[in-house]
Fold this sequence. Notes:
Elements (H helix, E strand, L loop, with lengths): L5 E7 L4 H6 L1 H10 L3 E9 L12 E7 L7 H7 L3 E4 L4 H11 L4 E4 L4 H10 L9 H7 L7 H7 L25 E5 L11 H13 L3 E5 L5 H9 L6 E3 L6 H10 L2 E4 L3 H9 L3 E4 L19 E3 L29 H15 L2
Helix pairs in contact: 2-7, 8-12
Amino acid sequence: MSQSGTIRVLLIRFSSMGDVILTSPVVRALHAMLEGGVEVHFLTKSAFVDAVDGLEGVHKVWSIEKTTAEVELDLVELGFHYVVDLHANARSAFIKRALRRGNTLDLTVNKRSLEKMLLVRFGRDRLGGQHVVERYLATLDPFGSALSALGGVEDNGALRLPALEAEPRPAPGDKGHRVALALGAAHVGKAVPRAHWQEVVAALVAQGRGVDLIGGPAESALATALSAQHPEGDVVAHCGTASWKQTFAIIEQAGALVTGDTGAMHAGAALKTPMVVVWGCTSPALGMGPWLAHPKTVELEPAGPERKRPCSRLGDKCRHKVRCPERVSPARITAALEGVLSQTAP
C-alpha cells in the first residue's frame, strides 16, 4: 500500500471554500497524532483547490469536477490506511466503500444534523457552543485528543492557508490603508444588502482609504457599479477576475475585512486580518463563526427580535419581513470598522 513505516491518509471535504479552510487543523493534527511517516492526501472539488494546494502537511491534492468516478480508480490503486471523511455525503460514501475493499479504515464526522435542526426550528440549542473545527477534530478521537496532540507541538489549532509568497505584496505603507469588502455570499440570507455596501464604500472613500471589492462573477456587476460611483476614490473591483489565491493575498494585505458568513470570513480568520463580520440568517450558534480570528475582530448580529435566529442552517431562508442582514445597519458597520481600524493602526 505504501512504503514501510508510512501511513497514508485520505481526507475528504468537497466544498465549500469556508468548510475546506476549516479542515486545515485536522491536517496538522494527523501528523501530530500518528507515529512514523504520514502522507495526508486531500480530496476536494476543483473550485476549492487553492485552499489546500501547498498547504502545510498536505502531500497531494486530488480534485473532481462533478463525480468521484473521476478519481476513484486511482485512489483505489494507490491505497490508504485511513479515510477521514469530513463531508459525510453520498459522494464521500462512494469513495469509502471503494477503499474498504483494500482494508482501509474510515472515520466520519458527526455533522450533528439533528441538533442543528432543533436550533433552527425550535430555538433549542443542543450544540453546546461546539465549533465545527472542534467537530472535525473530534473525528480523530479514535487516535486520542487532537487538540492535546496539537498542543504538544505548540500548535493552537488555528486555521491556515497555503503560503502566499508568489502573490503581489503591498507597497511600503500600504498595509492597513486599504479595506477589503467581501460582497458575495452563497445565499441571500448571508448577503449584505447593496445599499449597505454603498454607504460603507462612501464612508471609506471620504476617509481617503483604498477599497478592494472581492467576490465571484456573480458580484462583478455590483463591484463595477460601486467603483464607478466613486471615480475620485481608490476603489478597485476584483470580483470575477481575481483567483482565490489572489483574493487571499488581498485579504492578507488589508487593514480590515468586512464580510458576511462566507468563505472570505474563514480566510480572514486564517490570515489574522481584523474583521467586521455581519451576520444574517445564520448565527455563530451553529458553530461556523470565525475560528481563532484576529482579537480585534467584531461580530455584528441583526437588531431584534431576540428570538427566531438562526432562520436557517445555510442562510437560504429568512422568517422575517425585514431580512436579517438588512437589520445590521450601515451605521453599525462603519462604526465597527472605524473602531477596528483605530485599534489596529500601526
